[in-house]
Amino acid sequence: MNNILLRFYEGLLTIGICFLHSTSSCSLTFISHHQDCDFPPEVAHGRHEEVIGFRVFIQNEVIYKCDEGYTLVGVAKLSCSSSHWTPAAPQCKALCPKPEIAHAKLSVNKDQYLQAANVTIQCDSGYELDGPQSITCLEDRTWYPGVPKCEWVVPESCEHVGKGRKIMQCLPNPADVKTALELYKYSLEIELLERQIEKATKYTAESPR
C-alpha cells in the first residue's frame, strides 16, 4: 500500500506520496498545492459557505447563496486557483413583487421582477393614471418612483346625474348602482323636505296677524 504525507509551509500544501517498491524501500514524490487565496469576495445580500470535504487534490471551494427576496446571478461556486478565486463572484439581485394596480394592465405581467426591470402601466378605458407611467425595480425591492393608481374619470355628462338608466351608465362599477339609487332617493326626500319647509315659512310670513 502506498503512504501519503501531508506537509504545510507558508500557505503551501506539500503532498508526499511514497510509492512502495518493496517492504523496506519506496520512492517519495512531492506535489505542491497552493492554499493562499484571500478571503472569498463579499456579495451584497448574500453569503458564502465553504465546501466541506477531505480533498487534498481539489482546490478550496465556496458556494454563494442569496438572502430571501434576492436571486443569484452568475456562477454559484468559486474555486481557489493560483492565489485567486475563479470565476468572478456572482451577484444577488433583488426580486420586486408584482405591483398591484386596480383597473390597469402591465407591460410585463409576472409574479416577481428582477432588479432594474422596467414596467409600464396602462389604465383601463374610463380611468386615468395618477402617478408615473413607468416604474423600476430597485435594489431594496421597492418600485421607483412609486406605484401609481388608476382613478376613475367622471364623464362630463355625469357631473349632474339624473335618475334611472343614466346612473347605470355613469357609474364605474355596476355593483354601486344600488347604493347610488338609495342616495338619489334620499336626495329627493331631502329636496322635498326643503320645499315643504320653504312653503311653510312663506305661508307663515304671508298670513295676516
Structure report:
By secondary structure, the chain is of the alpha+beta class. The chain folds into 3 domains: 91 residues, Ribbon (Complement Module, domain 1); 56 residues, Complement Module, domain 1 (Ribbon), CATH 2.10.70; 48 residues. It is built from 2 helices and 16 strands. A 4-stranded antiparallel β-sheet has the order 4-5-7-8, with no helix packed on it. It has a 4-stranded antiparallel β-sheet with strand order 10-12-14-15, with no helix packed on it. A hairpin with a 5-residue loop joins strand 2 and strand 3. It is rod-shaped, with a radius of gyration of 38 Å. The protein starts with a strand and ends with a helix. The N terminus is likely disordered. Keywords: Disulfide bond, Glycoprotein, Repeat, Signal, Sushi. InterPro entries: C4bp_oligo, Compl-Cell_Adhes-Reg, Sushi/SCR/CCP_sf, Sushi_SCR_CCP_dom.
- Which architecture of the largest domain per CATH? Ribbon
Strand content is 35-45%
- The CATH topology name of the largest domain reads Complement Module, domain 1
Largest sheet: 4 strands, antiparallel
* Poorly predicted tracts of residues: 2-17, 28-34
Terminus-to-terminus distance: 136 Å
List how many beta strands DSSP finds: 16
Count of discrete alpha- or pi-helical segments spanning 4 or more residues: 2
